[in-house]
Every structure is written in C-alpha cells, then in structure tokens.
Design a protein that fits this description.
elongated, two-stranded antiparallel sheet, 12 strands, eight-stranded antiparallel β-sheet, mainly beta
Length: about 170
C-alpha cells in the first residue's frame, strides 16, 4: 500500500550516467560549500595580514546532504536497477542500505550505484504532496565522495535518520 507524502517534501534524485538512479527523501538539509584551499606561509615576526598566501589547488564545490531511509512502498531506484533483465526494486530499509553501501564495501561494484570513476547528476526538487510540481531544480555533474548510514540510532529501524551523502562537483575523469 502506497503511503501519501506530507504536503511539502524535499527529494534528492541522484542519476548515474547509465541511467541508474536513487531518490532520497525526505531531505533534511542540503549544504553548498565552495572552497579554494590555500597555504599561509607565515614569516616569523610578521603580522597576519602581511603573510604571503599561496593557492596550490583549484576551487572545490561540495554538496553534502542529510536524508532518511524508510520504506514507503516505493522503489527508490525508480525501476532502473536490473539483474538478468529483471527489475530489482529498492524498497525496504534493508534493500536501500544494501543499495547505498554494497559498492563501498567492494561488493557488486559494476551492478550498483557507487562504482568509482563515473559521473552522476543530481536534482533537488520540492514536491508538494503527491504531485510532480517541481519548484527548484539543480542539475550538476559530480562524484559521490561519501555515504554515511548510521548502524545504531535512537530512532526506529523503520525510519533511519542521520544518513548523509557527500557530492563533489566537477567533471570526473
């Protein structure tokens, strides 16, 4: 039985370049951080504002976001995962955790989502209830740097909060 969504819900859709995707929701926070790392070459006896600075790296943009894993009866991979020409649904909490973490452990690296060296695009969409009324959309090429799924939480095993995914923007090679 499909559960109805609240009136307003944030979703994050991650789509791999071979069309495998995962929709994470609800999203609790999406950060947008741009940095340009530099080295402060402080000289003894010099005040801080006269220290020479050197940039050794280019600009880096990261988009970490927090989400929950829960079973609402919907395939979070939206029918995009296939095994032997059969659609494999990613619905239950356990299936979602396996989908998000198997590759990081080195299992099934070509079958699932986070195989190294591929680019993904991400969309941030606001949904109002069950409709497809998209209010905000960002699409960018990135890599998935990190996925954190808590194994011990004070909440329910049926609704795991504190999940986090870190995206690093750029053109993967």
């Amino acid at each position: 039985m499909k559960k109805t969504l609240p009136e307003t819900i944030w979703k994050m859709k991650i789509k791999r370049d071979d069309d495998i995707e995962y929709t994470a929701y609800p999203i609790f926070a999406v950060d947008d951080s741009t940095t340009k790392p530099g080295i402060n070459m402080g000289i003894a006896g010099t005040v801080y504002h006269k220290n020479p600075l050197m940039a050794l790296e280019g600009q880096v943009k990261e988009v970490p976001f927090e989400f929950a894993i829960w079973d609402d009866g919907r395939d979070r991979a939206n029918g995009t995962v296939k095994e032997n020409d059969t659609v494999v649904e990613v619905v239950t909490v356990e299936e979602q955790i396996d989908f998000l973490t198997d590759v990081l452990k080195g299992d099934k690296i070509d079958e699932y989502f986070f195989s190294p060296g591929f680019s993904v695009e991400y969309d941030v969409e606001i949904y109002h209830g069950e409709g497809e009324d998209k209010k905000k959309r960002m699409v960018q090429t990135c890599i998935i740097e990190n996925v954190d799924v808590p194994i011990l939480s004070s909440g329910s095993w049926k609704f795991i909060t504190g999940c986090r995914m870190d995206l690093v923007m750029g053109d993967p090679i």
